[in-house]
Design a protein that fits this description.
The chain has 195 residues and is an alpha+beta fold. The chain has six helices and six strands; from the N terminus they run αββαααβαβββα. 31% of the residues lie in helices and 23% in strands. The protein has a six-stranded antiparallel sheet.
Length: 195
């Protein structure tokens, strides 16, 4: 029997939630980030329908959060469908970029970066500003494109700019971000607007 792909968010189990966290932790350490989180479009939607599906943080951020007695964002935000301004910005940026080449790769990344010290007013009123509240200045939203569809964003929070590696349309062929996207594609029904 073939592997049945699961719907986001309804069929994400605790085991898959932990597997997502583990893959995000690989990216956190590889990028030297303070936090990494993931939003994916709800399965079956052909427009933007972001769902919060995971968050990992550095030891410093975790210790500060625990000191303040705040819950782990990955747990309390899971399934959150609050629309994100940076999610929309990543989609718009991805839509304006030229394809990688004549034969579009299966997996691509296209990014937009925000400095939340200067751009905090851009967040929607109902949007929860976890990155800025956590003390992280920059957020790189890596638009994830699978088979020519914008399926979500991988968000990397740092206190130093990181966007140069993702300028333009970048094929994902190796590394922890590629491994995350490949695993998501193999296990979940990924959806979203055509790029």
């Amino acid at each position: 029997m073939a592997n049945q792909k699961k719907k986001i968010p309804g069929e994400v189990t605790l085991a898959e939630f932990k597997a997502i966290e583990d893959r995000l932790a690989d990216i956190l350490h590889g990028e030297g980030a303070q936090e990494v989180h993931l939003r994916l479009n709800e399965s079956g939607w052909k427009e933007l329908a972001p769902v919060f599906v995971g968050w990992v943080e550095s030891t410093d951020l975790r210790d500060e959060r625990v000191r303040k007695n705040k819950p782990a964002p990955g747990l309390f935000r899971f399934g959150d469908t609050v629309f994100s301004s940076i999610y929309e910005a990543a989609y718009k940026a991805a839509s304006r970029m030229a394809p990688v080449g004549p034969a579009q790769p299966q997996y691509e990344a296209r990014a937009v970066e925000k400095d939340w010290v200067t751009a905090l007013a851009e967040k929607y009123e109902e949007e929860k500003s976890l990155v800025a509240k956590a003390g992280v200045r920059y957020q790189l939203a890596v638009g994830l494109i699978v088979g020519g569809y914008f399926v979500g964003t991988l968000n990397i929070g740092t206190n130093a700019t990181k966007s140069a590696q993702f300028r333009g349309a970048v094929p994902l062929t190796t590394g922890p971000i590629f491994q995350l996207v490949q695993w998501l594609d193999q296990n979940f029904e990924l959806s979203g607007p055509k790029i």
